[in-house]
Amino acid sequence: MKIHEHQAKQLMAARGIPVPRGRVARSVDEAVAAVRPLIEESGNPVVVLKSQIHAGGRGKGRFKEHPDVRGVTVVTDGIDGGPSAAEEKVRELAQQMLGSTLMTIQTGEEGKQVNRLYVEQGIDIARELYLAVLLDRASSRNIVMASTEGGVEIEKVAEETPDKILREEIDPAIGLAAFQANQLAHGLDIEGDAAKNFVRFVRAVADAASELDTDLIEINPLVVTTDGQVMALDGKMAFDDNALYRHLDIADMRDETEEDAAELAAKNAGLSYIKLDGTIGCLVNGAGLAMATMDTIKHVGGEPANFLDVGGGATADQVTTAFQIITKDPNVKGIFVNIFGGIMRCDVIATGIVEAVERVGLEVPLVVRLEGTNVEKGKQIIAESGLKVTNADSLLDGAQKILELTEQPSGAAL
Amino acid sequence: MSVLVDKNTRVLVQGLGKTGQFHTDKAIAYGTQMVAAVHPSRAGTEFHFEGETDHSGVPGRDDTYSVELPVFATVKDAVAETGANASVVYVPPQFAADAIMEAAAAGLDLVVAITEGIPVADMIKTKRYLDGKPTRLIGPNCPGVITPGECKIGIMPGYIHQRGKIGVVSRSGTLTYEAVHQLTLLELGQTTAIGIGGDPVNGTNFVDCLQMFEVDDETEGVIMIGEIGGTAEEEAADFVSSEMTKPVAGFIAGTTAPPGKRMGHAGAIVSGGRGTAEAKIEAMTSAGIVVADTPSGMGEAMQRALG
Q1: Residue B5 domain-assigned?
Q2: A187 and A165 in contact (C-beta within 8 Å)?
Q3: Which residues in chain B are closer than 8 Å to A157, comparing Cβ atoms?
């Protein structure tokens, strides 16, 4: 699960990890009201307006409705004009940003609607660095990754100058040892008081990763200020969904407006669904087989409309929900059901399919491939249902058949 | 021979909820030596299992079975009383990591964790706990391990298997069934099929299994089934090209998976351009592994690799 920057910073601040002062605003008035107290508390006349969406690249992103406004905008009007001038500029910007669609490198052309802003104090930056804590699958441990190239995409750094990325492995029984934090500070050329601050900072971030069950903590940039403070100027956190049961406060931070409605509905029904751009819907049991089904559709020249894994013990109700989700997608021109019944019996799945089609209705061709436990019984149930279903003998055969059916003009008029 | 499990494997089950009971029954029907259950609040009682024998499993048995499975408070007690040397874990995700550690502490050779949804942080700690201990962990989030005709530990359907000469190792459950089914139809059969699981942190990786199959007399070739995420397949490809003498075929799922999305399995994600199917297929092909275009072609790919 992802959360917003302002929420990540709230979690960091609660753990003693320094972040700039800031206030979240859901309306123009709230944004304006945040300006004066921020300037007074920080003594810095500069404020920053930051769009809160679950996607990276906000700083360089632009609004669809206001192409000249960036997703993150520094307001310097307070330097000469005082707090009132800053307020005026923030009002103008917030009006343009709130409710508008921000397009970044990660959202693509579609963009994401900005529903909240984070108003933050300006910071006098001496250096921008990169810091992240994430799982290293090869060692089965979390690692700290740091780089002098702050504010740049880490993937780009990894590709172009991999030697600029420093790594320290976190022993789960010990945490990040002080000497490891020192090594990082040394490698990043941080000296004096700033080095001490950095060591405290990075060890607190490493602890946060294990205690909060994060998939990822990314601070880009981490800044060293002109007076030697170390701060998270940006903050991104994603959490292990399987561990949210022990972090109910974090689970409450979920912003469902950031998630795809169909994917959310599927999740609530115990299904795993991801929408894609193609025309052939698929319903499969098992994650690996579901991926392989998409791949095979592509292999024979089609485009999959979705990933959908009904899991190992799907009920007739879940199969119905799965059909509803697939048929709701207007791009879907045909559906391919691919089941290898192991523990899940083919007759149960067949009954589920028949019931689902009767309840949901079906206006596109359907190809069903059943294999495994009670397969004959399953095929019989489908044959006797009177549904217009094409049977397939293998995954490849099924993919070819659904492609033929969706490519025939008459296929769509069933 | 075979790897990991055979007719002498004595299995205890941790977690006897609905799923645990169902699959324990299936394992007994298959002929697996289920010797104990661990359930603190039911210690001292017995679980009764009876039904019709699954004759696709261990040969030479009666048509029906009736078994009283003794229940113990701890794994330690169960091992002391029954001589169990392997465990299968169906414990719910919140408690599963602890169950794995308990099994390792009792000195079991093998722990097969079926449970899906164990927090990554729990598995990181569990792996640290297993360091230096002789216990091998398979999974979590896997279908289990089967040596056809001898021992079935896990949730795979027994009857699709047939004893033969191919080792199978896979991150995906249903794709393992696809491969096994094809090998059975082609009369190549399997020595042992191992599901290593779909989580980012697991006990046993491709390389471990390839190593075991390489030294197993009965295994003549190996199918490895991978998917997007991580670099385990690339490491396996390195191992195949430098250490393996036996032919290897394979398949990688997720060529069409969009980056940044978790495809059902916790470990199946392309992030920051890493863990793509293309990179894995490229590494495997370069290592001389015959990679099937579609999962329907896994058995034939194995045939081609065998020459």
Answers
A1: no
A2: no
A3: none
Choosing from B104, B138, B172, the residue where a domain stops is: B138
The catalytic residues of B are: 265
Q: Which of A274, A296, A373 sits opposite B157 (nearest CB)?
A: A373
Measured distance CA(B216)–CA(B174) in Å, rounded: 25
> Closest partner residue to A342 among B117, B155, B264, by Cβ?
B155
User: For chain A, which residues make up each domain, given as ranges?
Assistant: 21-121, 125-251, 261-413
pLDDT tens, A302-335?
A: 999 999 998 876 777 888 889 899 999 999 999 9
Beta-bridge mates of residue A70: A62
Residue B150 included in any domain: no
Q: Please indicate, yes or no, whether residues B168 and B297 belong to a single structural domain of this protein.
A: yes
Measure Cα distances from A402 to A141, A366, B11, B250 in Å. Answer: 44, 7, 44, 26
Please count the residue pairs, one from chain A and one from chain B, whose beta carbons lie less than 8 angstroms apart.
170
Report the amino acid identity of residue B173: G
User: B266 at the A interface (CB within 8 A)?
Assistant: yes
Residues A286, B225: C-beta atoms closer than 8 Å: no
Question: The domain A21-121 is classified under which CATH number: 3.90.110.10, 3.90.1570.10, 1.10.10.10, 3.30.1490.20?
Answer: 3.30.1490.20
Complex confidence, ipTM: 0.92
Bond preceding residue B93 cis, omega within 30 of 0:
no
Q: Which residue range is the domain that position B277 belongs to?
A: 162-306
**Do B24 and B93 share a structural domain?**
yes
How much is the pLDDT for B143?
A: 94
What stretches of A302-363 adopt beta strand conformation (E)? 306-309, 334-341
pLDDT of residue A362: 85
Exposure string over B33-63, b if 16+ CB within 10 A, otherwise e: bbbbbbbeeeeeeebebeeebbebbbeeeee
Chain B within 8 Å of A137 (Cβ-Cβ)?
yes
Contact A176, A202 (CB under 8 A): yes
Q: For A7-47, what is each residue's pLDDT tens digit? A: 999 999 999 999 999 999 999 999 999 999 999 999 999 99
CATH of the domain at B105: 3.40.50.720
pTM to 2 decimal places: 0.93
CB A148 within 8 A of CB A164: yes
CATH number of the CATH domain containing B227:
3.40.50.261
How many CA atoms lie within 13 Å of A123's alpha carbon, on the beta-carbon side?
25
Q: For strands A236-239 and A280-284, give the pairing.
A: unpaired
* Contacting residues for A135 by C-beta, under 8 A, at least 6 apart: A141, A142, A143, A215, B120, B124, B200, B201
Query: What whole-number distance in Å separates Cα of residue B40 and Cα of residue B55?
Result: 33
Cβ of A138 within 8 Å of Cβ of B94? The answer is no
Picking from A340, A349, A373 by the largest number of B CB atoms within 10 A of its own CB, the best residue to mutate is: A340
**Are A288 and B225 inside 8 Å of each other by CB?**
yes
| CATH 3.40.50.261 assigned to A261-413 | yes
Contact A213 B119 (CB under 8 A): yes
| Superfamily (CATH) of domain A125-251 | ATP-grasp fold, B domain (3.30.470.20)
Residue B151 lies in a domain: no
Residues in chain B, how many?
A: 307
The label of the residue with tokens 């399987």 reads: A242
- Any idea which of A189-198, A303-312, B128-137, B227-236 has the lowest mean pLDDT? A303-312
Give the pLDDT mean for B267-296: 93
Q: How many CB atoms lie within 10 A of CB A58?
A: 22
Q: Is residue B146 in some structural domain?
A: no
